[in-house]
Amino acid sequence: MIQIDRRHFIASLGGAAAVKMMSSEAKAEALESYMMQQLNNAPAANQNKKFPKAADIEAQIETRSYRRGAGNLFLNTQPNGKVKKLTPMPPKPAFLDFFKLRMEQTSNHVLQSANRAMKTGMTEEIILACLLHDTVHALIKTDHGYWGAQLYAPYVPEKVAFAIRYHQALRFYEDKEAGYEYPDLYRNLFGEDYVPLPHIQADYKMLKSHKWYMEPRLVTVNDLYAFEPGVVVTIDPFIDIIGKHFKNPKEGLGNDNSPVAHMWRAIAMPDNPL
Q1: CB atoms < 10 A from the CB of 190, how many?
Q2: Element at 152 (helix H, strand E)
Q3: Cβ distance 40 to 227 under 8 Å?
Q4: Host domain of residue 143
Q5: Global pTM?
Q6: How many domains, in total, are found in the chain?
Q7: Using one digit for the tens of pLDDT, what is the confidence trace for 171-220?
């Protein structure tokens, strides 16, 4: 069983003050990420790592009252947990409104990823892709790279949407030259004998010779699976990049009659019964 160093865990989130500002759902997600990172950081000499098989993961389905692919806004996975009442969106919401009011559960993760991309000298397009890459988890988790690319395609440069779409495929394939190793997190989530689905295999084959291969690959390289200890990241360093590369519609996201407006409305109003 993993032993949690409470002081280190709180420090990794930016201290007690930062933790107080997090919702219960965000705290639970942070704890899960921290525990996964502890598994990843176990000494290499420890040969007792035990990962589930894909069949073990499938056997867990009927033990839950929810499906793991459901978006964060639509359920609370804690025992006897309840969802919270959401702050109303402004009449003409921009991306930052969604980020702050609807994407809270992934915000720490993507901010850390974007911060790492910025610190390692990535282009503004890669930094933006890192900031956006998992935010669609608010709506859905299954095939999130493809959903996320669709959500953002009308509003960001083509390379950004491409990087978001295909980071999902490349995360299953190591590229040690680029600095990416297959994480233990996926061995726990999918099973150690998991074989990527045919569409993922096909995309990987296509990407290996694609001129934009490094765009999604750099998202995986900068994709942190837990919070960097002692680092507190806010949205502020990325405001200019968002302003330059994200085209917010004047009517507001969800009101602009774009092909994905309904997706933004679903994120804005997850309590609507129909």
Answers
A1: 17
A2: helix 144-152
A3: no
A4: 1-274
A5: 0.83
A6: 1
A7: 999 999 999 999 988 999 899 999 999 999 999 999 999 999 999 999 99
